């Protein structure tokens, strides 16, 4: 029985790590040895996020590994280790930056002196998803390693890489030697290459983060007054005894929004007990178009979501005409299928989803052109098949509970019901 349980657990982790909407998404960590030193080497470490809609939000990434021998870190530029370790065996004033066998590295914060910076560093560990901003989907630092090999044959690759982004979820494979990185000089007339390169690939598994979902979806429509809420205990009710009622004075007390080091949430009391709820409202029906309103609500008093992303899978996303208040990018992992899109906040406008409270929500509307051959409101067609928030799949209501289309409904007589449903929808958003 125990062996079977282990096999099931391994299978679940393997399948959960594969994302069909982003089949090639991963974080690749590249080590480029750019020069040899008397007792080691200097390496440029670059972290590239190739995930289309999963980013690393504040407080940022944490990278760790184990040295293969007795290496030390003499100095770093663009990052730092969280501990120095025991460097007592080094005499004189030349003391290494870190002597631990298992160093843990974090990014520097913005605004550090220029002599501590290199390109793509010092963003507090925040890394954009590749789909949002490829130019910001990279982080880098430079490290000088001592008591190590001084040639391609004597250097031993670090082992047991770990990546927190910022919490658990990533599993890193072993370091593998790859062809040395080649680059052009600024005048584009000469190629140069580094002395040695190895890569580490890290993939994400939602199962490693939590056994429960961390967001849920609710539905409503203009053609039915019924609101389909998130399923009860969508995200598990293990925090039910620690939650805060929305009308409680504790919600306005000083220090309530202070994050904890263990990222323990402090949730508003709801029947679903999720930090995030996505509401999809079928708002209006025109002759050639139909309009959807989306709202994302944060019920966590201790967390702001930076550079958040919302991914929806819906058959009519191949005919998006206009998106209001959000940025939008279609995701086409398979060239023959165009039914998935990514929504994210506009920079410096609503790319920060505030903690629970009056400002803890973002909203937008989407206008989609009808496909005359396939368009219908019947059988829940107007609602998404899958929804992801920040790269994690959200819990959807059961299909039989979706708002149904009345048998005698006509598209010409929808104005009054549309207004009523919109009012109910707004009340639902602000009450919960």
From TrEMBL:
Coiled-coil ranges (or none): none
One BP annotation, GO: cellulose microfibril organization
Ranges annotated as spanning the membrane: 413-431
GO CC entries: plasma membrane; side of membrane
Presence of the UniProt keyword Secreted in the record: no
Signal peptide: 1-17
Record-annotated COBRA C-terminal domain positions: 214-403
Topology term for the membrane: Lipid-anchor; GPI-anchor
Keywords assigned: Glycoprotein, GPI-anchor, Lipoprotein, Membrane, Signal, Transmembrane, Transmembrane helix
PANTHER family xrefs: COBRA-LIKE PROTEIN 4, PROTEIN COBRA
Family stated for the protein in its record: Belongs to the COBRA family.
Name recorded for this polypeptide: COBRA C-terminal domain-containing protein
Organism of this sequence: Ambrosia artemisiifolia (Common ragweed)
Taxon lineage: Eukaryota, Viridiplantae, Streptophyta, Embryophyta, Tracheophyta
